[in-house]
Design brief:
Conserved Hypothetical Protein Mth637, Chain: A; 5-stranded mixed β-sheet; 1 helix; 5 strands
Length: 71
Amino acid sequence: MKIQIKTIPNSSLSKLEKISNNEYKAHVKSPPENNKANIELINLLAKELKIPPKSIKIKNPYSKNKIIELK
């Protein structure tokens, strides 16, 4: 399954907003440097979707509009 996520780094809190079936908006506290925001995004998705973090893969990690593959 693939989902699209617009990531907003350097937010005041971490949260995941559902826009439609396969679209989300993610606010993460971490800055977009040294992969910190991506790691926080994976942990946030794993917690919210109740799946293991290893089953989440980011297809385009350098973009704010990410495509996430869930196994």
